[in-house]
Write a structure and sequence with these properties.
It is built from 4 helices and 10 strands. By secondary structure, the protein is of the alpha+beta class. It has a 3-stranded antiparallel β-sheet with strand order 3-8-9, with no helix packed on it. A 3-stranded antiparallel β-sheet has the order 6-5-10, with helices on one face. The termini are far apart.
Amino acid sequence: MSLIPLLLGRAATHAIPETAGPARYNPGGGHRPVVGAVAVGLPVALVVAVALSPFEMPIKFKPGGPIVIDFPAPPPPPPPEAKDPPPNQPLPPITAPPSPLPPVYDPPVAQPPMDGPLPPPLPPIGTDPPVADPPIPVPVPQFIEAKLDPRYKSTFQPDYPAYEQRSEIEGSVRVRVLVGADGRVKEVVELSSSSPGFFTETKRRALAKWRFKPATRGGTAEDSWVTMTVRFELNRG
């Protein structure tokens, strides 16, 4: 190896140099050869131990510096071998997974009873529902309005009021009368009048003398309202 001469050369640098001239007294001079031998022998022993080791150890050496030895990382341990269970050894019991909790449901809410009869059942699928017969039209009784009885036509005109006659006032009055089922006037209502005297005389004559053929509904007499107009004119002939 080339390392030994280098070590020897490094150890040789520690030898006692030769001096010219007469010898001087040196108290430690007798111990320097021992120190030089130790300085030389220690690196040599280290190199021999490294050379005799069963594995290679890379050594980095720099002149004038320390010796650096890189130890390789130990190999990883082998994985443990799987051990088979001893024969006739009972296997551990298989435990079933815990059953899930039952779902939570709200309690059913009681429905209030239905009022009235139940609806009819639906017809079976594929059949047409029965068609209801059209309602039979009910005939409406015929209504006939009340009319003035022609037998009492001569008594229809009221008396001319004295004030309106002296003042030569002419005009008309429009009234609404309630004709009973017997044809007589039960009530008189003023709608319009040219003078108060005209309405007074018309009301008196209607309640006393007017006669009507009563209104009928389906042939049956009934009360009804009739509107009448009475004119008051002076005889200037």
